[in-house]
User: What shape does this take?
Amino acid sequence: MTLRIASGALTEIRRHLAAAYPAEGCGLLLGERGPNGDVVVRRQVPVPNPLIENGGGRTRYVIQPEDFLSAERVARQDSLEVVGAYHSHPDVPARPSAYDTEHAWPWCCYLIASVAGGNVREERVWELRDDRSGFVEHDLVVKES
Assistant: This one.
């Protein structure tokens, strides 16, 4: 599987996650799944991380059900679907954490960005195995918008 993302969407994700630093920023990826299993991301929807208000947003994020439903409505208007989520890892590599593994959905692609000093350093794409035993890394391809 490859995740293909429009360069404009990735630019907005980077901007959002850099601004959230030193907390974890998060959002949803809107696009479509191809017959070969590839995922094409057309848009992103930033969502608030409510854990920031409680002081827990440095190493955790939560996407509230109402934010997910709102993103689904936006996706449907553009004949898209929610295909994944994105979030940042402040000052650590862009690899899934134990928390990510516990809370991930197997059908969802996860774009994780490492943010250091307020700058995005790398992005990597992951998908949880169906048996929840861990993540598989996938290719990330940026397409001109």
